[in-house]
Amino acid sequence: SVVTSSRLDAIRSVYGVSVARNLIKIKASDCDASSSVFSMDGFISNCNYTAKKTIMVLFINDRLVECGALKRAIEVVYTATLPKASKPFIYMSIKLPTEHVDVNIHPTKREVSLLNQDIIVEKIQSAIELKLRNSNESRTFHEQMVDPSLSGSLAIGKDSPNNPSSSGQKSQKVPVHKMVRTDSQDPAGRLHAYLQVNPSSQLQGGSCLTSVRSSIRKRRNPRETADLTSIQDLVKDIDSNCHSGLLDIVGHCTYIGMADDVFALLQHNTRLYLANVVNLSKELMYQQFLRRFAHFNAIQLSDPAPLHELLMMALKDEDMEPEAIENKELKEKITEMNTKLLKEKAEMLEEYFGIFIEPDGN
């Protein structure tokens, strides 16, 4: 309709094309005089819209106003419905009986309150949630043109115009599969292909890293899983419930960046995924703990530390008063008892935690 197009034109001219193209039409109404009487129409942002701040343009009976309760309620719907919980853009026009609007709750009369506000808000919430769920089934990604001069300079590398050997030759057109990351396993599909690194610094850094990595590998325990039956059962549970498709995605994805505090963008082949980093990290740590339990890395001390001295240090009080002789004797007894206990449990401590205790208590 003419009204709809003129509203969209106004939004486009004030807020820009990127906002206007990501809007969906919304309507809601109620004719029940016993509960509420109102009609609402307008536009709300779809799942492709991203912003850090909510923008709400609200007209009630053709007067520009604010309604904090309605704004917060709509934000709640977006947070619960869309995976990224982006802040919405809302343009809304509400018509209702004049006597149902209270404009006296704020000195400027900008903030208003509505009669039967909870019912109206709930009906608008339901209409928006339904619209968002239906629109969230597909996503739109807009192409960005690559500057030909830039892509040419990236592609030709050694054969640049500054190189005398290639003067007079036209730059080769870059194949599409080399302009974007298409596969995490393919070096041409990684960002490293577009970075020029000084060969000498790369060699020095590489040799240093190699030496560090080799020393770390020697310290790692080659055994992957524990010999304990209980641990093996838990690992079997994980392996039997493993989703091969998800495993492939996580194992061969390319990290793009964080979408917000919780979700990360991952690319696998030609698809983009939003991954919950918190849940992934918890599961990863749990599985690594199970697979490495009882085979922790050990640090070998040049002089084994005596258990007796370690326990005395742990029991030592900060206040060194003269009358603490009896206390010292008590600590000695506690130390002897615990030293004996730890020596008895030496086999378990070594098997479970990689702590080796000698027969003489070191």
UniProtKB/TrEMBL annotation:
Alphabetical GO biological process terms: mismatch repair
GO cellular component: a single term: MutLalpha complex
Highest taxon, organism lineage: Eukaryota
GO molecular function annotations of the record: ATP binding; ATP hydrolysis activity; ATP-dependent DNA damage sensor activity; mismatched DNA binding
Listed Polar residues bias regions: 160-172
Region (Disordered): 152-177
Chief localisation class: nucleus
InterPro entries the UniProt entry points to: DNA_mismatch_S5_2-like, Mlh1_C, MutL/Mlh/Pms-like, Ribosomal_Su5_D2-typ_SF, Ribsml_uS5_D2-typ_fold_subgr
Keyword terms of this UniProt record: DNA damage, DNA repair, Nucleus
Cellular compartment(s): Nucleus
Residue ranges annotated for the DNA mismatch repair protein S5 domain, each copy included: 11-133
Keyword match GTP-binding: no
Family: Belongs to the DNA mismatch repair MutL/HexB family.
Protein name per its UniProtKB record: MutL-like protein 1
Species this chain originates from: Jasminum nudiflorum (Winter jasmine)
